[in-house]
């Protein structure tokens, strides 16, 4: 039972003629109801704002209205008719969008669209899921939203993972201020670019980590699309298609795919790169997103596996599977660098850092992990490559960095890096000596792109020789 003034207030706002109600307007009505009833604000919460907040929260909890108090952007709008929100979503999520959303001069003009532009944008929406702000205005025209209310509606869709906003760097085709992507409407297949940037076999001296969620029967509807929207918070660049996303973060790459298999659905998440800590960090963020999304479907059955990276890197298409709940929800213990866990090679020591996450914040013990991993990667290569094979790749330089230790700055200044550059790298990567070193070495390497590898190896050799790291060079040479 509502307190009498709240009941009066609810009646008043439900008669408010507009489709949505701004918080300012909600407050004005609230004050007038209180005045009419000669009710003191003090008897409620002290101030009108505070009292209104309490009332709106209560009405939201009972389902009379929708108001998201905890979000500073969303709280500016009150959906005093909750069904309006559903209608607004239906204006976009139409199964017959192609047929029913057609050009109309009046709406078009108000949304800043001529027919040609409209048709192009509609086509992009129906194939690539791209919704420009103009097309959105067109679809929502009859709700008569203020720009602020429309932005709130967009924020609400973002909050519920119904779409993601394309970063401005990707807004090439249009001059729109904002473009949203609704993965549900993607119809495209992976482009050739994807196969170039993510070849089927893991490139040499690249690390790959993967896990999968297997839904043996039907996968929950919307799971993959919502996951794809959430991914946007962890990445800088991406390419989307109907059943996948290839995304980029710093030098790491992320591949998310959905595949139908034996009547079920497999969602596979893989990361590739050379920075082990960053790779584990990304993989775990996505894993937690997926766990979190699963809460929306508490009864669904799903198997969660971590793929054995030892098998994956060996090119085995049927890698050993570990239970993800055990392996991904722990941190590699101190001083454990090798394990005999792969049932496909039960007697082999495999690098622990390939199957148990490393702590993203600390670099204690990173050196030995990298050294063990480099030895493993070197063992995969054929012997014909000769000296220094792979040393100039990002991971190879990471290995050199792991071996150098604290006196790395001597070596890189021999390679021509200036003191100021070294200090900047240190500032940008605090407490991460190995990262500092490998970034410095990459800088040196990238500056001489046009030179032959043998010249670079000679330079590195000289620098190691001058700084008493000759023994390291001898070891590298053996590999
Ligand atoms: Zn294995």
UniProtKB/TrEMBL annotation:
<dbReference type="Pfam" id="PF16095">
    <property type="entry name" value="COR-A"/>
</dbReference>
<feature type="domain" description="Death">
    <location>
        <begin position="393"/>
        <end position="479"/>
    </location>
</feature>
<dbReference type="Pfam" id="PF00531">
    <property type="entry name" value="Death"/>
</dbReference>
<dbReference type="InterPro" id="IPR000488">
    <property type="entry name" value="Death_dom"/>
</dbReference>
<protein>
    <recommendedName>
        <fullName>Death domain-containing protein</fullName>
    </recommendedName>
</protein>
<keyword id="KW-0677">Repeat</keyword>
<dbReference type="InterPro" id="IPR011029">
    <property type="entry name" value="DEATH-like_dom_sf"/>
</dbReference>
<dbReference type="InterPro" id="IPR032171">
    <property type="entry name" value="COR-A"/>
</dbReference>
<dbReference type="GO" id="GO:0007165">
    <property type="term" value="P:signal transduction"/>
</dbReference>
């Amino acid at each position: 039972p509502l307190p009498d003034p709240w009941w009066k207030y609810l009646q008043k706002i439900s008669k408010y003629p507009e489709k949505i109600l701004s918080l300012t307007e909600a407050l004005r009505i609230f004050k007038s109801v209180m005045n009419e009833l000669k009710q003191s604000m003090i008897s409620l919460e002290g101030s009108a704002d505070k009292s209104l907040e309490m009332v709106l929260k209560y009405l939201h909890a009972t389902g009379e209205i929708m108001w998201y108090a905890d979000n500073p952007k969303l709280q500016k709008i009150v959906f005093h008719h909750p069904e309006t929100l559903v209608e607004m979503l239906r204006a976009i999520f139409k199964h017959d969008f192609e047929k029913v959303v057609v050009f109309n001069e009046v709406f078009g003009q108000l949304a800043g669209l001529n027919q040609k532009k409209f048709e192009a944008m509609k086509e992009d929406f129906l194939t690539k899921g791209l919704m420009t702000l103009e097309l959105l205005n067109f679809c929502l025209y009859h709700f008569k939203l203020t720009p602020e209310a429309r932005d709130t509606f967009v924020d609400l869709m973002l909050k519920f993972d119904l779409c993601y906003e394309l970063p401005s760097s990707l807004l090439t085709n249009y001059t729109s201020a904002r473009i949203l992507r609704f993965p549900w409407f993607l119809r495209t297949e992976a482009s050739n670019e994807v196969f170039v940037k993510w070849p089927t076999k893991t490139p040499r001296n690249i690390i790959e980590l993967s896990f999968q969620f297997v839904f043996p029967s039907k996968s929950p509807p919307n799971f993959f699309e919502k996951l794809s929207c959430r991914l946007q918070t962890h990445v800088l660049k991406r390419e989307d298609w109907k059943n996948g996303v290839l995304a980029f973060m710093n030098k790491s790459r992320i591949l998310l795919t959905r595949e139908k298999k034996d009547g079920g659905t497999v969602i596979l998440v893989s990361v590739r790169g050379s920075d082990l800590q960053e790779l584990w960090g990304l993989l775990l963020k996505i894993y937690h997103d997926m766990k979190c999304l699963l809460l929306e479907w508490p009864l669904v059955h799903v198997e969660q596996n971590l793929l054995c990276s030892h098998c994956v890197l060996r090119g085995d298409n049927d890698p050993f599977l570990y239970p993800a709940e055990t392996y991904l929800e722990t941190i590699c213990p101190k001083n454990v660098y090798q394990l005999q866990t792969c049932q496909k090679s039960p007697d082999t020591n495999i690098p622990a850092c390939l199957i148990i996450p490393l702590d993203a914040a600390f670099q204690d013990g990173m050196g030995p992990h990298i050294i063990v991993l480099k030895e493993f990667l070197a063992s995969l290569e054929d012997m014909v490559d000769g000296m220094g094979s792979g040393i100039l790749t990002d991971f190879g330089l990471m290995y050199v960095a792991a071996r150098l230790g604290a006196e790395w700055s001597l070596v890189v200044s021999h390679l021509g890096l200036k003191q100021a550059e070294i200090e900047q790298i240190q500032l940008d990567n605090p407490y991460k000596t190995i990262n500092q070193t490998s970034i410095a070495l990459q800088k040196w390497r990238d500056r001489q792109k046009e030179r032959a590898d043998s010249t670079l190896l000679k330079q590195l050799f000289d620098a190691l020789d001058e700084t008493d790291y000759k023994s390291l060079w001898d070891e590298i040479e053996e590999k």
